[in-house]
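Hey, quick one: can you model this chain's 3D structure?
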Amino acid sequence: MFTGIIESTAKVEKIESEGTNKHILFSSNISHELKVDQSISHNGVCLTVTKLGKGMYWVTAVDETLQKSNIGDLQPGSIVNLERSMLNNGRFDGHIVQGHVDQTGVVKSIKDENGSWIFEFGYDSAFGNVTVEKGSVAVNGVSLTCFDSRDGSFSVAIIPYTYEHTNFHQLKTGDKVNLEFDIVGKYIRRLIGISKE
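Sure thing. Here's the predicted structure for all 197 residues.
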């Protein structure tokens, strides 16, 4: 389990294809602290460390992950947000994030507010996912609070620290992002759907 509080970023150094899978080599300033078999959130996608190198580590992404997230769009030089799984004695600073991306969304607009940034995201509501006003959502693994929540879109405010210490400062209008909707909201929606059947 993760909390959506990004620890660091990683850069893609190399990508190797094997069948429908992709092996991805990342470099990061926390690489030396990682272990083989450790689960790490990359842009909100939980991937397992398969091999370690000096200042680098490998993960493998299967076809479903590549198709349902922006991991399949990564190229050498791409930057991703990193978070290790939550310690059971740590503070719960974000919200419950499973590392299971529900769907991708797209950056609809970015507004510079002279000290912060307003990002508007769009997504296909046909998948059944929703946001609520002041509710939680993970965008590329970052725990954020929604506002202007509408069918198929929502906005978030990004403070300077988050903007500089995640890959938000590289996002442009039209870019694809990974979305994980609030698990509590998903269960409630599921229960309401069952009760109507």
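One thing worth noting: The first strand starts at residue 8 and ends at 18.
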